[in-house]
Design a protein that fits this description.
The protein is of the alpha/beta class and 477 residues long. It folds into two domains: 97-293, no CATH class; 307-476, TPP-binding domain (Rossmann fold), CATH 3.40.50. The protein is 58% helix and 7% strand. It has 17 helices and eight strands. The chain has a six-stranded parallel sheet with strand order 5-4-3-6-7-8. Strands 1-2 form a two-stranded antiparallel sheet. Helix 15 (365-372) links the parallel strand 4 and strand 5 (380-382). Helix 1 (3-25) runs antiparallel to helix 2 and helix 5 (131-158) packs antiparallel against helix 6. It starts with a helix and ends with a helix. Its EC number is 7.1.1.1. Keywords: Cell inner membrane, Cell membrane, Membrane, NAD, NADP, Translocase, Transmembrane, Transmembrane helix. One of its GO terms (molecular function) is NADP binding. It is an enzyme of class 7 (translocase).
């Protein structure tokens, strides 16, 4: 190895160490921002190192002696375009739209990994082709293509461009198995017929693209958090495979980290929703039975209340549990909820925030929102720890949470059946702040809203919380 190659290897190793450290710091909201900065530093080092390596000629151990000018121009233009688009999306996207943004990033990442692997197969000379290259690049093409098409559909469902309901595909199981078998066969042929590698690589790419569609289209919106996590893991794995094909240490380690952490999160999310992860990978997640049951719902009348009445209940409570959900994020009302919590605590009232793992549209959504509003981390209580406390709560204030509080999950035959929920219905009094009378993302009515101990406060979460705060101040005057 030359001196530069040794330095390059250690710089990639340093970048990898920073990736690991940054990922570790993201375990807690208190250090998450620092973790992002550390990871960014690692990525900057990796990108600059790769860019310098572009000018290096290992044959002569010199820089700039054999530079592909056209390639350099393309790289610079792509970096500029990607930077502009990335900054624009990151700064203008609302926090409620982050799941769609993550899906789009997965689309780009998976597609890029597939194209890099495809380019490596097509542009490698016959003398340099080997089985390791064919296996790693082939896997990169397949996994990247699945991620590309699947993430594109997921983004469309989350943005409501496509229906969020589970789609019925006639003969879904047959077509899914057929496409999987055909994809595996094309991958095998790619490895055993290197002379025809370009043809088999394109066939594998097309089949994997189709599987991505079959994978995500049948999945309903209520199950989308797990899908996002699985696709994120696929993106990382595809990048790692491309890194192996290119013999790039930074890509291998970064992709492996994303793949491993994404799959770990997928398993945890599937467990949180009581869904078998294996069914997800076969495209059977959120299946047809759930879709047919979605039209059924509870019967009865919702009892409405006012901000003044809610303020009175809160003022005379001893223990209050807030249950935030996507409606809170949509209204950007996290600071108002935090202000209400602070007011109640000054009165000596115990306040806690019940956090469901899949409240919102992606893992950790509520934690991030409430941390942004400076809610003390110790007041954020996970589902398993908060559920036994609901019977002792005088008031459970649900702000925009729907499917994660639906008692229908305890019954068979619904889209949320079996999903562990927050036991809000067991509180002494329940107040639900909700924009309208529509259903949640699972497409069914919430049985909680029709129970005797539940009152509904219809309206924008931010506006209603402001009115409750104003009413509390009047009571103190």
């Amino acid at each position: 190895m030359t001196v530069f190659q040794i330095v390059e290897w250690f710089l990639y190793l340093l970048a990898a160490v920073l990736f690991v450290r940054g990922l570790h710091d993201m375990n807690s909201p208190k250090t998450a921002v620092k973790g992002n900065h550390v990871s960014i530093a690692g990525m900057v080092i990796a990108v600059i190192t790769a860019f310098i390596a572009f000018f290096y000629d290992s044959q002569t151990d010199t820089f700039g002696s054999n530079v592909n000018v056209a390639g350099l121009v393309v790289v610079l233009v792509c970096i500029a375009v990607g930077a502009v688009v990335g900054v624009a999306l990151a700064t203008k996207t609302k926090s409620t739209d982050f799941p769609q943004l993550v899906s789009l990033f997965n689309t780009v990442g998976g597609g890029a990994a597939a194209l890099v692997a495809l380019n490596d197969i097509m542009n490698t000379s016959d003398n340099d082709v080997n089985l390791v290259l064919l296996i790693t690049a082939g896997l990169g093409i397949i996994i990247g293509s699945v991620t590309f098409s699947g993430s594109l559909v997921a983004a469309g469902k989350l943005q409501r461009i496509l229906s969020g309901k589970p789609a019925h595909i006639p003969g879904k199981a047959f077509w899914t198995i057929l496409v999987i078998v055909a994809t595996i066969a094309s991958f095998v042929m790619l490895c055993v017929q290197p002379a025809q590698r370009s043809v088999w690589a394109l066939v594998a790419l097309a089949l994997a693209f189709i599987y991505g569609l079959l994978f995500v289209f049948p999945i309903g919106g209520a199950d989308m958090p797990v899908v996002i996590s699985v696709l994120n893991a696929c993106t990382g794995t595809a990048v790692a495979m491309s890194g192996l094909a290119l013999d790039n240490v930074a890509l291998i380690i970064a992709g492996a980290l994303v793949g491993a952490s994404g799959m770990t999160l997928s398993v945890l999310m599937a467990k949180a929703m009581n869904r078998p992860l294996g069914t997800v990978l076969l495209g059977g997640f959120g299946g047809d039975n759930a879709a047919t049951a979605a039209g059924d719902g509870p019967q009865g009348t919702m009892k409405e209340t006012s901000a003044d009445d809610v303020a009175m209940q809160l003022a005379y409570a001893q223990k209050v549990i807030f249950v935030p959900g996507f409606g809170l994020a949509q209204a950007q009302a996290q600071r108002d909820l935090a202000d209400l919590g602070a007011m109640l605590e000054k009165k000596g009232i115990e306040v806690q925030y019940a956090i469901h793992p899949v409240a919102g549209r992606m893992p950790g959504h509520m934690n991030v929102l409430l941390a942004e509003a400076n809610v003390p981390y110790e007041e954020l209580v996970d589902r398993d720890d908060i559920n036994p406390q609901f019977p002792q709560a005088n008031v459970a204030l649900v702000v925009g949470a729907n499917d994660v509080t639906n008692p229908a999950a305890r019954k068979p035959g619904t889209p949320v059946s079996g999903m562990p929920i927050l036991d809000v219905d067991k509180a002494q009094h329940v107040v639900v702040i909700k924009r309208g009378r529509g259903t949640g993302y699972a497409g069914i009515q919430n049985e909680l809203y029709f129970q005797d101990n539940t009152q509904m406060l219809f309206g924008d979460a931010k506006k209603e919380l402001e009115e409750i705060i104003a009413a509390l101040k009047e009571l103190d005057a």
